[in-house]
Amino acid sequence: MGADRTFAYGAAAGLLGDLLLGDPRRGHPVAAFGRAAAAVDRALWHDHRGWGAVHTAVCAGGAVALGTLAARAVRPSPAASVALTAATTWAVVGGTSLAREARTIGRALECGDVEAARARLPHLCGRDPQALDADGIARAVVESVAENTSDAVVGALVWGAVAGVPGLLGFRAVNTLDAMVGHRSPRYRRYGWASARLDDVAGWPGARLTAVLAAVAGSDPRGALRAWKTDARRHPSPNAGPVEASFAGALGVRLGGTLSYGGRIEHRPVLNGRAGRAVQVTDIDRAVRLSRRVGLLALGTTVAARLLLKGVVKGLKGRGK
């Protein structure tokens, strides 16, 4: 069995596993990686970019190396290769947990229980929940669903299509490192620079594919493309900008504006400000449904791209003969 079909069958099975099972409550592989990365952080930390780059290379390189060794070990068995790809895909994607957390907060808001929604928000994003009212929480949830659709689903599938199991593990490792040390705190401003920049590079293709698919899957394709074109570049993140802008246009809402992280106030540009309305609680479920559609389209797109590339390579080889 070729690598293209191994990825197709394995990724489809892994996404199905995520849909049916979600993330394990205990013993999640990503959590295990996080503990290992934290141990490396404690051993290597210096307030210096060079030491941060070493940390990134050790952790992300270790994940890629582990994936490479595992893929080579099962290569003689097509069934084992598919199973490994499926298990890895299930481990690194998080679409079901994303949807579950978003809808849990949405139900609390629908019941008027803002305190319960505030208590649950840190499970989904790093905003300061006490600084948000019900509308602010709803907006934060929709923005997190948009960004994490790229980070937790589409980006992983893109790198899985490119590099198989090592690509899946490497992308999740880089994304996790960015969440751990890539933020602009006094401790990690320099040490986390390498992780943050590598995450920008690794997330670039997945973010653009997510933005395209949100336009395709949403109810207002023109609005999504218009918001992406006019507003994405104003966002401080090169990858969150296109994704959030496209989701805003597709849903017909405004995203962005003033927010608070760890006591630090940020004034971000408003996305889809001219055509969109304020986010409502009901938009949380709409964003989750859009995220689901984008994830399924991403699976089809990445599998088709892998098969198309194989066909092109075979054609070029045939001409060479």
Order of helices and strands: HHHHHHHHHHEEH
Distance between the termini: 24 Å
Averaging pLDDT over every residue, what do you get?
93
Q: Outline the biggest β-sheet.
A: 2 strands, antiparallel
In DSSP terms (H or I, runs of 4 or more residues), the helix count works out at: 11
Number of strands: 2
What spatial order of strands do you see in the largest sheet? 1-2
- The backbone outline, from C-alpha atoms, is globular
Percent helix among the residues?
A: over 70%
User: Gyration radius, to the nearest Å?
Assistant: 20 Å
Q: What do these coordinates show?
A:
By secondary structure, the chain is mainly α. 73% of the residues lie in helices and 5% in strands. The chain has helices at 3-21, 29-44, 49-74, 78-92, 95-110, 114-120, 134-181, 193-217, 221-231, 240-251, 282-320; strands at residues 255-261, 264-271. A two-stranded antiparallel ribbon has the order 1-2. Helix 2 (29-44) packs antiparallel against helix 3, helix 5 packs antiparallel against helix 11 and helix 7 (134-181) runs parallel beside helix 11. It is globular, with a radius of gyration of 20 Å. The two termini are 24 Å apart.
Short descriptors:
321 residues, mainly alpha, two-stranded antiparallel sheet, 11 helices, 2 strands, globular
Draw up the topology in text.
Elements: H1 3-21, H2 29-44, H3 49-74, H4 78-92, H5 95-110, H6 114-120, H7 134-181, H8 193-217, H9 221-231, H10 240-251, E1 255-261, E2 264-271, H11 282-320
